[in-house]
Design brief:
The complex is a heterodimer of chains A (80) and B (179). Helices cover 65% and strands 0% of the residues of chain A. Chain A has 4 helices and no strands. In chain B, helix 3 packs across helix 4, helix 4 runs parallel beside helix 8 and helix 7 packs across helix 9. Helices cover 68% and strands 3% of the residues of chain B. The chains are: A mainly alpha (80), B mainly alpha (179).
């Protein structure tokens, strides 16, 4: 339909257009649902769980004493 | 030297230390240096609390300070000792075994081997819970840049670990199969 809007497409361009269309269709057919990255939500979620696990392993450790002490010292106005 | 830091703000600050440590480790790959970074960050944050608007995103503010501290120190260090590329991954792969699961260990190494900017984007968005917009602010780049870094990071990890979708909607690893 887009082609009809154009006034006088050179025959070569029209052919190329048609070729592109068929290429699009064949590419669409076998792909499954993907996100913008071209990766399935399942795989994305799998990676996400692992990234969070690596991060949380450190994040959930008890805070080292010297860091807590630092804040207490600062709070006492001990800094110059 | 803030005059009156509200107790709730202090509590919020303490509550972010865990995440800050995890972010610091993901940046520098070195536990000891990570704690130095967090210490420096807390110190700076404390002394600049007056410039923080209470009620806005404290976590993003702290992450930004930590990141800036890391990169300015790294620039200084680079002038002194050239820190060869890949040293991060090397340190990590010689670190003592922490995970019982081979799968997790593989993942950790693959994550460490990502380009720094991709790993950072993936950690901020995928683990630390920031939006693309917040991550872009923290990393001082465009939202589109963060999105493409996250995508490239995911694809690279999948590629590196041989992760594939299986037909039953599960994820399979070629590595596990051949091991």
């Amino acid at each position: 339909m887009n082609r009809n809007d154009q006034k006088k497409p050179p025959s070569g361009a029209a052919k190329a257009d048609r070729k592109a269309e068929t290429a699009d269709q064949s590419a669409e057919a076998p792909t499954r649902q993907t996100s913008g990255s071209g990766m399935s939500p399942t795989l994305q979620a799998h990676i996400g769980r692992h990234v969070r696990a690596v991060f949380d392993e450190v994040a959930e450790e008890p805070v080292p004493d010297h860091l807590l002490r630092l804040l207490k010292d600062l709070d006492k106005g001990g800094d110059k | 030297m803030p005059q009156n830091v509200s107790p709730s703000l202090k509590e919020d600050l303490v509550a972010q230390i865990g995440s800050l440590r995890a972010f610091a480790v993901s940046l520098c790959g070195d536990r000891e240096r990570a704690d130095d970074l967090v210490q420096e960050t807390l110190y700076k944050a404390w002394n600049h609390l007056s410039s923080f608007k209470e009620g806005t995103n404290l976590k993003a503010w702290l992450f930004t300070i930590l990141r800036n501290t890391y990169f300015s120190e790294r620039r200084k260090r680079k002038r002194e000792v050239e820190d060869a590329d890949g040293s991060y991954a090397a340190r990590l792969s010689t670190a003592p075994e922490q995970h019982g699961h081979m799968d997790m260990r593989d993942f950790q190494i693959a994550l460490a081997e990502l380009p720094d900017d991709q790993r950072e984007a993936l950690i901020l968005v995928g683990a630390a819970g920031f939006s693309y917009e917040e991550a872009a602010d923290i990393s001082d780049c465009a939202v589109g840049t963060i999105k493409s870094r996250v995508n490239r990071a995911r694809n690279r990890l999948a590629d590196r670990l041989g992760l594939e979708d299986t037909d039953d909607g599960d994820v399979d690893s070629k590595i596990k199969k051949t091991a």
